[in-house]
Amino acid sequence: MSLASKVLNLRAVEGNVVLSKLTVLASSLLAHTDNVRFAAKAVDSFFERVSQTAKLWHRTVEELDLLRAGRADYRTEKEMCLRSENFLVGARKLAKLDAEQIHIG
Asked: To which H or E segment does residue 96 belong?
């Protein structure tokens, strides 16, 4: 079945779509919803820029959380807590810790 139209509106109280493959091409996407849940074996996404804003961000990673970047900048207004059984810091040229007070141990 093919459907072509200048405008398409769908309204329903409840709906289901079952597809073996879905391709969506759009110049813009706007979605409003209260909740979103995804279940997938893998997610690959490619962006030129990503900007996200949240009041609370919680993430759990069972194995490895890996960031590879040219530069990384983490800033907090009050405190930042990094805790681990073992904490390793390494640098090829300079490792700098700057504060009014530094407590080790």
From this structure: none
Supply angle C-alpha 10, 24, 39, rounded to 5: 90
DSSP letter (8 states) at residue 48: S
Q: What is the distance, to the nearest Å, from the Cα of residue 23 to the centroid of all Cα atoms in its chain? A: 22
Query: pLDDT digit string (tens) for 53-80?
Result: 999 999 999 999 999 999 999 999 999 9
Does residue 74 contact residue 80 with C-beta atoms inside 8 Å? yes
- Name the amino acid, one letter, at 19: L
State the amino acid at position 65 in one-letter form. D
Tell me which residue of 105, 60, 64, 97 sits closest to 80, measured CA to CA. 97
- End-to-end CA separation in angstroms for the chain: 70
In the block, which residue shows the tokens 């279940």? 39
Dihedral sign from CA coordinates of 98, 99, 100, 102: negative
Q: 0.70 exceeded by the pTM?
A: no
